[in-house]
Amino acid sequence: MSITVVGSVAFDAVKTPFGERERMLGGAATHFALAASFFDEVHVVGRVGADFGDEDLGVLATRGTRIGDVERVPDGKTFFWAGEYGWDLNSRDTLDTQLNVFEDFQPRLSAPSRDCDVLFLANIQPELQLSVLAQCGQLQFVAMDSMNLWIDIARDALVEVIRRVDCVMLNDAELRQLTNRPSIVAAARDVLAMGPSLVVAKQGEYGAALITEDHFFALPAYPLETVVDPTGAGDTFAGGFVGHLARSLDKPLTQPVVRLAMAYGTALASYNVEEFGTERVERLTAGEVDVRVAELRAITQFEHSPAPLETS
Amino acid sequence: MSITVVGSVAFDAVKTPFGERERMLGGAATHFALAASFFDEVHVVGRVGADFGDEDLGVLATRGTRIGDVERVPDGKTFFWAGEYGWDLNSRDTLDTQLNVFEDFQPRLSAPSRDCDVLFLANIQPELQLSVLAQCGQLQFVAMDSMNLWIDIARDALVEVIRRVDCVMLNDAELRQLTNRPSIVAAARDVLAMGPSLVVAKQGEYGAALITEDHFFALPAYPLETVVDPTGAGDTFAGGFVGHLARSLDKPLTQPVVRLAMAYGTALASYNVEEFGTERVERLTAGEVDVRVAELRAITQFEHSPAPLETS
Lengths: 312, 312
Hints:
In chain A, helix 4 runs parallel beside helix 6, helix 7 (172-179) crosses helix 8 (184-194) and helix 10 (255-272) crosses helix 12 (286-298). In chain A, helix 4 links the parallel strand 8 and strand 9. Chain A has a 9-stranded mixed sheet with strand order 5-4-1-8-9-10-11-12-13, sandwiched between helices. Chain A has a 4-stranded mixed sheet with strand order 3-2-6-7. The first copy, chain A, has helices at residues 28-36, 54-60, 111-114, 126-135, 148-153, 155-164, 172-179, 184-194, 233-246, 255-272, 279-282, 286-298, and strands at residues 2-6, 10-16, 19-26, 41-49, 66-73, 80-85, 92-98, 118-121, 141-145, 167-171, 198-202, 208-211, 216-219. By secondary structure, chain A is an alpha/beta fold. The longest helix of chain A has 18 residues, at 255-272. At the A-B interface, helix 8, strand 13, helix 10 and helix 12 of A face helix 8, strand 13, helix 10 and helix 12 of B.
């Protein structure tokens, strides 16, 4: 199996209550690839500027990720985002957005990227997501992300993408906005009715929920005393989630498989937020990921015993 | 064992996207008692007005709850609160608050209420919570709630209450405000350092977390397609949580016991929000509660198998 991710590769400037970075490697495809690379061969499709150094490319290539489809524009500048998080890290203000070379990004997939088994469409214009789908061969599994902007201004194209994927990953507010449903369960059912078989509702510090036609599963975020930088948590989660599914596609995607994928996503996201940008996940080990998955299991299990209420 | 709850008994006027009620039975002690009455003998200590009818008292007495310490003031009016919830039920505006007879509430516990084994101090002035503690005999377990107002204007008395209880139940925002810690884990540790052995962080639609010195446990809310009225969910949760602990006090409060108590609280709260006010929990059965506890287990369990990431 191999996984292709199409999305932003960027520099971020971030200020949180625990410190700041003036320029760090970021972008949805970057965070996704760093997480998914634990599970499978990952191909990144993106566009950067001349300011994107060999060292940055080296980080992107961590754990064997293929970067042949990361186009470096000689006279361009890399997508830049600057933001500042509030005291409890649950709010953030965007201070600056410079699309730069990302503004004219037209994903063109080489043969190895096209021939992937699994595709992750990170948050980009729905029309570009459709063009990627049109380039790919027979895909076994496709997951996607999006954002409020596209729900506002490109709803028809977005719904067309949703119809063609297996898994939609959005945060609670986006699911509500997309469906006009106040309940996440009802919103997810509306999305499932469009075609996908899996909906992941991302809930920030509260974790994530997974909704299928027959099942609901919720997993809290891993409890941390200090969250240093939440940037990229959602894409890191997606990398762990899609990564575990990719390595499991030789069998049907049963509930145990998709639930463990949620745990891998959650574990990886928890490491991501412990340090700035890609700093922690770059040097993370597979053993550390497994330790946290086991801890997630320990903090969520309970027994319905001894006596039920009715007979007590 | 018997449980005493001291707190508000009220009438609420509520408007939600799914309907409205001009006057319905409410109040923290009411919701707590209706839930806790599944587990043990409950004594309610409160104060109401002449407008509080025998039918209202009858609801309060559901499943054998003792209402001898509910003082009915002949020339007074019952505490009245009116509120309106936003579209997704996560925000609410208070439209009216009339304390009425509750303004001069000075809890005086009769012998049966004083001789309880378990006490729940619902959200009232910390000074009144201290006066209740002073009246009670040897208590086996005390839990408390509070609110942002008391953190603002009666912090010293509130901390004094916290020092004397076994369990603090606050929402995330209150825990952060009380401790000035952005992380709920760090905030809970600060509260544990004041004396309690259990902290419950209430998280609304996302469920609740339980923090002790050695353990963390999180349980999502039960997923509902429609939440009709969230009023009283926190106190209903407290009733199920404290109720299960009360019936388990013949043994040490181990993690399996307190985790199952979280599930009982969550199950009861989920029923509470399915209809207005006390309507659903009044006619709820023990069997229905157990069904939902089993469902909560089903939607949170996962296995860390087959192969860990490291060896795959």
